[in-house]
Automatic annotation (TrEMBL):
The protein's name: M81 family metallopeptidase
Origin species: Phototrophicus methaneseepsis
Highest taxon in the source lineage: Bacteria
Pfam families associated with the record: DUF1485, MlrC_C
InterPro entries associated with the record: MlrC, MlrC_C, MlrC_N
Domain Microcystin LR degradation protein MlrC C-terminal residues, every copy: 290-461
Span of domain Microcystin LR degradation protein MlrC N-terminal: 4-281
Length: 482
């Protein structure tokens, strides 16, 4: 007999310290057949009918407007109700959504979905490893599996792994045994990458734990530290067929995570914006990449803080690229003036009014281009971009907040990054393509809504004690949901 599995989701990473609010137009919403390209496995199971319903995805940013979240959730619930009954539901999520005026958005999403599909339906979710997991989430989900790499190169693998676990459970009519342990650690992703220690060795423990009898999946959630919510912490989730084995697997990984908490550190040299600019200019390498980390839009930063850019210009840096500043008015001014024109514009400091102020510059328009908006496999409306040369700095201006994770993002604007001494990008750790091409890299501890100095941001609502806020605390792993 054919089993039916619905596919839904709402994915975004939100800094609660951002003054910028994510609105509906910031989401790319796919429905029905529009979702099929993301799920190549739809026809891999003869006995399973997958039914894509709705998935909303946005670039990380500030908290989602309350009415936007409730509207998308209501549509999801209506689609589940109208098209049921269901043997399973797959929630394609991120896990670090923050919504204005509420806590635990994913917890409410899962709880309300469970009310619609009933207790017998098996619900699964895949998460970014920077998602925050609450007890309510785990009480309503049967399966949760997260990424195992940061930078994230296993998104497709994680989705397929989660679907495989769900399909097996649906076929057997079996709800897996589970164990959930919140781990009181809140650290930024730039310190917890799986490409260096101790993250590398911590995640390398997973295969040995999976080899244990009665254990089918384990997840280490680093969590998302820039959300001031009670569920902000790390987590361990274990699944399997034997409750005792599952509990022990979770406890062992939680203890391993806790034991290395003080060893997490940045993978590249760090310093203030002024310090890393000075060191980069003095470096023998022909090109040096600098991460302007405090305003990283792919971690939830607003994206138009001018702090580091201002320092590049004031220092009269002879050869640099800066990516990027979202400023629709400035982009329109560049398009109107045309390539080759000299213009004076005021850029940045319009979205983020806490950590930045507008910067007035005079420069020459080098390029004006229009591209499709692309975010994590979703393609949306057009995004105008321009390049403005101010002194020795090529400033990339964009119509909407835009990540620059690939060398090709620069090249299509006529910029060869490696022909410049400095390449400064609003990013945290370098994504794989940038890291591969960077002769040397630094990370600037710049201001913004995703500042690396967490205590400076002023968390008030996280559960205490919490490392590193309470550095001397003690803790023993305990299963909270099973």
């Amino acid at each position: 007999m054919t089993k039916r599995i619905a596919i839904v989701g709402m994915a975004i990473e939100c800094s609660s310290f951002s003054v910028w609010t994510t609105q509906l137009e910031n989401f790319i919403v796919l429905r029905g057949e529009e979702m099929e390209d993301r799920y190549p496995f739809l026809n891999d199971y003869e006995d399973i009918e997958f039914v894509p319903l709705i998935r909303a995805r946005s670039l990380p940013g500030g908290p989602v407007a309350y009415n936007v979240f409730q509207g998308i959730k209501a549509e999801m619930l209506a689609l589940l109700e109208e098209n049921g009954p269901w043997d399973g539901v797959y929630h394609d999520m991120h896990g670090a959504m923050n919504v204005r005026d509420m806590d635990d958005a994913e917890g409410e999403w899962m709880q309300d979905a469970r009310k619609v599909v009933g207790p017998d339906c098996i619900m699964a979710a895949s998460y970014d490893l920077h998602g925050n997991v609450s007890a309510r989430i785990m009480e309503n989900l049967d399966i949760l599996s997260g990424y195992r790499t940061a930078p994230h190169i296993d998104g497709d693998e994680t989705r397929l792994r989660t679907i495989s676990l769900l399909v097996e459970s649906v076929r057997e009519g079996y709800h897996p045994k589970k164990a959930f342990i919140p781990v009181p650690i809140a650290l930024p992703g730039e310190r917890t990458s799986t490409e260096w220690e101790p993250g590398m060795s911590l995640y390398a423990k997973i295969p040995d734990v999976l080899a244990r009898e009665g254990v089918t999946d384990v997840t280490i959630q680093i969590g998302y530290a820039w959300a001031d919510e009670p569920r902000t912490h790390g987590a361990i989730i274990a699944l399997g067929t034997d409750q005792e084995a599952v509990n022990q697997a979770a406890k062992d990984l939680a203890q391993a995570f806790w034991d290395v908490r003080a060893e997490f550190d940045f993978g590249v040299p760090v310093g203030s914006s002024d310090e890393v600019i000075e060191q980069a200019l003095a470096s023998p390498e022909s090109t040096v990449f600098i991460s302007d980390s405090g305003d990283n839009p792919t971690a939830g930063g607003v994206g138009d803080v001018t702090y580091t850019l201002k320092r590049l210009i004031e220092r009269d840096v002879p050869s640099a690229v800066y990516a990027s500043i979202p400023d629709k008015a400035a982009v329109e001014a560049c398009f109107e003036a045309g390539v080759g024109a000299e213009i004076t514009v005021t850029i940045g400091g319009k979205l983020d009014t806490v950590y930045s102020e507008p910067l007035t510059v005079t420069g020459t328009v080098l390029a004006t281009e229009t591209f499709a908006r692309e975010e994590y496999g979703h393609v949306g409306p057009a995004n105008k971009q321009a390049v403005l040369q101010v002194g020795g700095v090529k400033i990339i201006l964009t119509e909407v907040r835009t990540p620059f994770h690939f060398i090709k993002n620069f090249q299509r604007l006529g910029i060869e990054p490696l022909e410049h001494k400095l390449v400064v990008i609003k990013i945290g750790y370098l994504e794989p393509d940038l890291k591969k091409n960077a002769p040397k890299a630094f990370l600037a501890l710049s201001p913004g809504a995703v500042n690396q100095d967490l205590p400076k941001l002023g968390h008030k609502r996280i559960e205490r004690p919490m490392f590193p806020f309470d550095a001397d605390m003690t803790w023993v792993p305990e299963v909270v949901v099973s």
